[in-house]
Design a protein that fits this description.
The protein has helices at residues 6-21, 30-44, 106-126, 148-154, 203-219, 277-285, 309-319, 334-338, 363-385; strands at residues 50-57, 60-67, 75-80, 95-97, 100-102, 132-137, 161-163, 172-177, 179-188, 192-193, 243-250, 258-259, 262-271, 292-300, 303-304, 324-328, 344-345, 351-352, 360-362. With 386 residues, it is α+β, with helices and mostly antiparallel strands. It folds into two domains: 2-177 and 302-385, Aminopeptidase (3-Layer(aba) Sandwich), CATH 3.40.630; 179-300, 2-Layer Sandwich (Alpha-Beta Plaits), CATH 3.30.70.360. β4 (95-97) and β5 form a beta hairpin. α1 (6-21) crosses α3 (106-126) and α1 crosses α9 (363-385). It is elongated and about 80 Å long. The relative contact order is 0.18. The structure holds zinc ion (ZN).
């Protein structure tokens, strides 16, 4: 078990994370995503009894590694290797400072990939028959449709439980995620010369009125800032109410003296149970003025992740502090597993500045997270190997 000697594991995790950060595995670089998969395969190839398959959907690859003869692992480790785009040249580099690894994707989630790879290698060496799998997708940042959604819905992958270290924190295990509704609000009017507005109907102004109605309706969900439920920016558990943001505003008009006949906005609604995406869409519909309609782009219902009590116990055992169940405003790939009833464990090492060039992951917490997973896997899977 020399590989688990803490200083050696620490060095391996740092090295592998930094190697992964160097690769510009963004949405527009399929070649770099392929290179990232190759680097990961180089580390997995030597694991005894592990069968690696590369799957593909819409140009996005997925790596699925399962022990020979096992189709439905008892535990599946799941992550993504795609990272967000930075246009500044030389962004994809890393530094180690103050006990953290800094660099694009360090915390979302190349540091976690390194941990998962080391877990697979560790268990592959001591008990290769363990029912433990690994899935790595490459489209999470654009929605997961060709990654985890494909894997679960089309490929038919199931698992006893999925560990996805892409949300929460070391002691924060996500229990609920808000639902998502992306929709277009589309206004039609009648184009006219702007000097004679009475001859037309201004689609942009119609749109503005409807967006204002939507704004006011969603503002009423905000808790009283002086009340007991006031929002604390540091605590997501105080953000548990529906929100709506206008994210894109567009018109095809490019002339300063023409009243636009068409205009549209994109809105991003996040909502909590018992609301459904259908109810949110109906709510928006009821707030629109004449000549304005709403069209759904994508929707996902709020998700309860069903975290396992044993994982919470082990988190406390390793960190010396209790695990907290947290509610998340954002969605994760976990929802696709939940639709098939697979419980999801969503916590991770301490990370920060996600999607920034100075994104980071704390090294000590990587070791703690590794140890939490190692003990959990040993206890959940241990029985069958003895
Ligand atoms: Zn992520």
């Amino acid at each position: 078990m020399a590989d688990l000697e803490p200083s050696r594991l620490r060095e391996r995790l740092i090295q592998l994370t930094r190697d992964l950060v160097l690769i510009e595995s963004t949405d527009d670089r399929a070649d770099e995503r392929a290179r990232c998969f190759q680097l990961i395969r180089n580390h997995l190839d030597e694991v005894p009894g592990l069968e690696i398959q590369m799957l593909e959907k819409n140009g996005y690859e997925t790596l699925l590694a399962l022990p020979r003869g096992i189709e439905t692992p008892q535990v599946l480790l799941c992550g993504h290797l795609d990272v967000v785009k930075h246009i500044v040249p030389g962004s994809y580099q890393s530094t180690v400072e103050d006990g953290r690894i800094y660099g694009p994707g360090a915390g979302d989630m190349k540091g976690q990939l390194a941990i998962m790879i080391e877990l697979i290698r560790h268990f592959g060496r001591i008990s290769p028959d363990l029912s433990l799998g690994l899935a790595i997708t490459s489209d999470e940042e654009r929605g997961g449709e060709s990654g985890v959604k494909f894997l679960v819905e089309e490929y038919g992958l199931r698992a006893g439980v999925a560990i996805i270290p892409d949300g929460g924190s070391l002691n924060d295990v996500t229990v609920e995620e808000k639902g998502i509704l992306h929709a277009k609000v589309i206004a039609s009017g009648e184009a006219a010369h702007a000097a004679r507005p009475w001859l037309g109907a201004n689609a942009l102004e119609r749109l503005m009125v409807s967006l204002q109605n939507i704004r006011e309706a969603f503002d009423s969900f905000y808790p009283d800032p002086d009340g007991p439920d006031a929002v604390d920016p540091e605590d997501t558990n105080t953000h548990w109410f529906p929100t709506c943001s206008v994210t894109i505003l567009a018109t095809s008009n490019d002339s300063p003296n023409r009243i636009p006949g068409e205009a549209e906005a994109t809105i991003d609604i996040r909502f909590i149970p018992p609301f459904t995406s259908g109810e949110m869409l109906a709510k928006v519909e009821g707030l629109l003025s004449d000549g304005v309609r709403v069209e759904k782009i994508v929707a996902a219902e709020p998700t309860h992740l069903d975290p396992k009590p044993l994982f919470l116990e082990i988190t406390e055992e390793v960190t010396g502090a209790p695990a907290r169940l947290v509610k998340a405003c954002g969605g994760s790939d976990g929802r696709f597993f939940r639709e098939e009833g697979v419980p999801v464990l969503l916590s991770r090492p301490r990370v920060g500045n996600l999607h920034g060039r100075d994104e980071w992951i704390e090294i000590d917490s990587m070791l703690s997270y590794f140890e939490i997973c190692r003990r959990y896997l040993e206890r959940v899977l241990g029985e069958e190997t003895r």
